[in-house]
Amino acid sequence: MSGLVLKLSPKERVLINGAVIENGDRRSRLSIVTPNANILRLRDAIHPDEVNTPVRRVCYIAQLVLSGDTAPEDAKMPLLRGIEQLSQVLTDMDSRNLLNDASNWVLEAQYYQALKSLRGLLPREERLLAGREQ
Question: What is the reported pTM?
Answer without folding.
Answer: 0.85
